[in-house]
Amino acid sequence: MTAVLTETDDFVAALRSHARRYHDSHPFHVAMNEGRLSQDQIRGWVANRFYYQENIPRKDAAILANCPDRAVRRQWLRRITDHDGTAEGEGGIEAWLRLGEAVGLTREEVEDGRHVVPGVRFAVDAYVTFARTRPWVEAVASSLTELFAPDLMAQRLTAFERRYTWIDGDGLAYFRARLRQAPRDSEHALAVVTTHCRTAEERAKAVAALSFKCDVLWAMMDAIDRAYGN
Amino acid sequence: MTAVLTETDDFVAALRSHARRYHDSHPFHVAMNEGRLSQDQIRGWVANRFYYQENIPRKDAAILANCPDRAVRRQWLRRITDHDGTAEGEGGIEAWLRLGEAVGLTREEVEDGRHVVPGVRFAVDAYVTFARTRPWVEAVASSLTELFAPDLMAQRLTAFERRYTWIDGDGLAYFRARLRQAPRDSEHALAVVTTHCRTAEERAKAVAALSFKCDVLWAMMDAIDRAYGN
Question: Where are the transmembrane segments (chains A, B) (predicted)?
Fold first, then answer.
């Protein structure tokens, strides 16, 4: 067997290389995973990140609205169900609210967004706007930060369980669910992107979309870091 | 018991009064339900109406994308599943393609939209754009033509079964499904609209949205009537 790198391999490699721009290497995130954040800093991160969480189903619905492919829509719909749940008290957004309670925030102060700093709001809104206004395949490509998520989630779970023992372990259900969901989602998104992006230009746009998404996550971290110190 | 008309009753009555503007009274539709259409006219209607059908999930996803209420989103999602199905070969769009086959059209000529006339395209696109760009409650209100759909579907089923005996009855599964789905959907949409539209201005906008939707359906009929004669 000889290993021949195809253009698709190069494309996937270019996408995967963005792992180095993923927000897990942001100083605030490094500090979080090393157990160096205070309770107030953890609370600030959880409250701000909720704005991202609650906008995910709307971002995904915007992709659905732009996508003419029924088979892709059928699969993409599961992301919305994962976050919204199929009944009251279920789903990822609810799980994040419980994380909020586990770190000592009320549901109300998380849901009403009082702690959300402008930089986080702008970054999340930019992501939703991207999904609404860009071609749907680019929006799918922007979701590919999920390729890097499982490693981060595993690290984060370990860090939270060992270093932040003041947080009830039941509050970490969101991270555990994502360990299972993110690989399934990123595998589907990668298949969609490699199927639909055939020209150099289309592939460059997909890579740019993923780069943009890395910027979104990084800018959120910057804004949280600035607000809560490190 | 005294019957006291509340403002909500007046509002619901104003919405329901649009039944008289529903497309079932369009001459082409009257002719269809009276069994007076030729095979070519039925085919023209089925092929053109497909453009509406295939855009429904994208319209509904646009509403989801604009809706911040998780409970509403959870319920609204079922509309997308109804049309797209949960697996290949299921759902309302597939059922409409089978109706196309039952009336003598190939799947290909229905799916590629070659028979879709500009007036139908413009009307459907206007509806999708409305859902994308208007406040989500107005977009929900625009769906309330479903209040009038079950009567039409029942009439249409009878007409097709008795008058157009050249159409295989299995092809009518879409209409049968809507007999069950439309009342459930319109009941939910009406509850959303009456809950969220509390001021006179909000209610006027909801009524205007339903009026707009009646225009969409009527304009489609006009365009089909013009193209296929009556």
Answer: none
The CA-atom distances, in angstroms, between A175 and each of A149, A154, B183 are: 10, 8, 39
User: Of B60, B63, B74, which to mutate for an interface test with A (greatest number of A Cβ within 10 Å)?
Assistant: B74
CB–CB contacts below 8 A, A to B: 72
Predicted pLDDT of residue A173: 95
Task: Say if the Cβ atoms of B66 and A58 lie within 8 Å.
Answer: yes
Candidates A73, A84, A131; nearest CB to B73:
A84
Residue A1 pLDDT greater than 60, yes or no: no
d(CA A42, CA B49): 53
What is the CATH classification number for the domain harbouring A216?
A: 1.20.910.10
Domains: count for chain B: 1
| A71/B contact by beta carbon, under 8 A | yes
Examine residue A75 and state whether it is found in any structural domain, yes or no: yes
Instruction: Inform me whether the C-beta atom of residue B84 falls under 8 Å from chain A C-beta atoms.
Output: yes
Q: Determine, yes or no, domain membership for B2.
A: no
Least-confidence region, from B58-62, B70-74, B149-153? B149-153
Residue-wise pLDDT for A66-97, tens only, equals 999 999 999 999 999 999 999 999 999 999 99
What is the spatial distance between Cα B171 and Cα B98, in angstroms, rounded to a whole number?
Answer: 6
Q: CA of A65 to nearest chain B CA: how many angstroms apart?
A: 4
User: How many CB atoms are closer than 10 A to CB B77?
Assistant: 21
pLDDT of residue B6: 86
CB contact under 8 A, A65 and B74: no
Report if residue B67 sits inside a domain.
Answer: yes
Decide if B140 touches A, using CB distance below 8 A. no
Chain B nearest-CA residue for A67: B58
Residues B89, B92, B94, B99, Cα dihedral to 10°:
130
Task: Give the percent of chain A with pLDDT over 90.
Answer: 94
Q: Which residue does chain A place closest to B70, by CA atoms?
A: A84
Is 80 exceeded by the pLDDT of residue B222? yes
Task: Kindly state whether residue B214 falls inside one of the protein's structural domains.
Answer: yes
Q: Is the distance from CB of A73 to CB of B84 less than 8 angstroms?
A: yes
Q: Which domain holds residue B215?
A: 7-228
At B108-151, the pLDDT tens digits run 999 999 999 999 999 999 999 999 999 999 999 999 999 999 98
- Spatial separation of the C-alpha atoms in residues A210 and B134, rounded to whole Å: 29
A81/B contact by beta carbon, under 8 A: yes
Do A155 and A33 form a contact (C-beta atoms < 8 A)?
A: yes
